Amino acid sequence: MITLENVSKSYDHKHKVLKDIFLAIKPGEFVSIVGQSGAGKTTLVRLLIGEERADEGKVMIGDWDITRLRRREIPYLRRQIGVIFQDFKLLPKKTLEENVAFALQVCGEKSSKTKKIVPSVLKIVGLDDKRKRYPSEVSGGEQQRVAIARALVHQPKILLVDEPTGNLDAINANEIINLLLRINRFGTTVVLVTHNKEIVNRLNHRVITMENGQIISDRAHGKYLL
Amino acid sequence: MPSLYHIIKFSFQDIVRNIWLTIVTITILLLALFSINTLATVRLISDNAVAAIKEKIDISLYLKPETAESEIIALKNKIAASAKVKEVIYTSKQSAIVSFRAKYENDPTVLAALQELGRNPLSPSLTVIPKNFDESNLVINDLKMLDSSIIESRDFSDNSAILNKINNITKRVNEVGLVLIMIFVLTSLLVVYNTIRVAIYTHRQEIEIMRLVGASNSFIFMPYVFSALVYALVSILIIISIFYPFLTLLQPYLETFFMGYNVNILSYFVDNFFLIFGVQLLAVLVINIVASLFAVRKYAKV
């Protein structure tokens, strides 16, 4: 489903942040991408959501060639991919329910559909009873769950999760990972970018290790090597 | 397609959250519109003044009182044959005294003096109207050289100097006005651009999330374009509500100044309302939309 062929990327045309990446992720996989800061993990995520363009090589998501994507096609790609970041990216002046609904409203969905989908995704992430609260009134773990709920409203086939537990304590981090595993069991491909050793080792799923913009290890039931 | 409701809602959020910027933007647009309308008014007044002065150009030949009618008609036809002459009006002695009496009907001293005289002291005359008022000098020169024994005196009150002066003033006003308009148009472009830029800055978090969750580009930039439309509409409505009372105040002064002439600026603006303000609305819309599109493209990265 996700394939990268010979992908390179640099921001200053001198130092490559990604070097000749070859990668294939099958539908329904749960893949952890690990590596230290500056290894190129986030650049990889940015390439996958069309935020950056590869200098060389080809990035495919399904039949979609992201490297040839036109500017106006990017929104449609992002509706197919749910993205979750470390800093949650919630709107502080909107309630949890409104934050989730926002993702549908800005894509021009009818309010009847919004009213139907939003409560169901909030239920999946276990926040249906707190839907009227504001982000500042809930914990970091709950805010991250709202971000996951928002990513799920378009029923994406792929979920890209960039350091989701970076701002969370161990208990909340475990809850988020359990939620991601549950979502993965429904058939969604999950690409988890992290440097949390305990989580990666506990998952016992495929682990791709990056260093200096290159993949140095790709194991089906891997551990955190670095 | 993004819903109109959300576009309008997001746009009004922008306008209200940045109310001071909105006020400054509309004020600059108002200054630009006011200068344009003032220039149009000045132009209209000068056109009326020129027309009025042209009407007053008097090229007359006064003939000897005892001249026979046939001789006068012959001279009239001779002058009228010139390609530069549009019309020659013959005023007989009798007609001259009738209009003289009518002119001084409220002045008993003049009428008494006329009564005292006991005869018609006025001469018959030929009034020459040139085809082109700008060429009245040439007509005057021709008439100066005209040799006829029946001509008693020649009166050429040449107003071409005044006409030139008015034309020069109008030209200067137009030049200065155009520079002013250019400055205001440029300022408007920059101010609208800056307003949208600040609006985008205050919404940067929302825009980032919109882009992240797959909002279409049109959904992201349409509220800002709609805001630009609101600025244009509000500024046009305000200028209409300012300019009409201004013209109403100006009108009596103009009527006094152009006494005897039909100079009605107010009715001109009323009759041509849709043309004048429609064109202005269109121009302001184009300026605002161009400025906002540039700002959105640069700062919202859509």
How does this model look, in words?
The complex is a heterodimer of chains A (about 230) and B (about 300). Chain A is of the alpha/beta class. Chain A has a domain at about 1-90 and about 155-220: Rossmann fold. Chain A is about 35% helix and about 25% strand. Chain A is globular and about 50 Å long. Chain B has helices at about 5-15, 20-55, 70-80, 95-105, 110-115, 135-145, 160-200, 205-210, 215-255, 265-270, 275-300, and strands at about 60-65, 85-90, 125-130, 150-155. Chain B has a 4-stranded antiparallel beta sheet with strand order 2-3-1-4. The longest helix of chain B is centred in the middle third of the chain and has 43 residues, at about 160-200. At the A-B interface, α2 and α3 of A face α8 of B.
Topology, pairings included?
The complex is a heterodimer of chains A (226) and B (302).
Chain A (H helix, E strand, L loop, with lengths): L1 E9 L5 E10 L4 E6 L5 H8 L7 E6 L2 E2 L8 H7 E4 L11 H10 L5 H14 L15 H13 L5 E5 L7 H16 L3 E6 L2 H7 L2 E6 L2 E6 L7
Parallel strand pairs in A: 3-8, 3-9, 6-7, 7-8
Antiparallel strand pairs in A: 1-2, 1-4, 4-5, 9-10
Helix pairs in contact in A: 3-4, 3-5, 4-5, 5-6
Chain B lengths: L3 H14 L1 H38 L1 E6 L5 H12 L4 E7 L1 H11 L4 H10 L7 E6 L5 H10 L5 E7 L2 H43 L1 H9 L4 H41 L7 H7 L1 H27 L3
Antiparallel strand pairs in B: 1-3, 1-4, 2-3
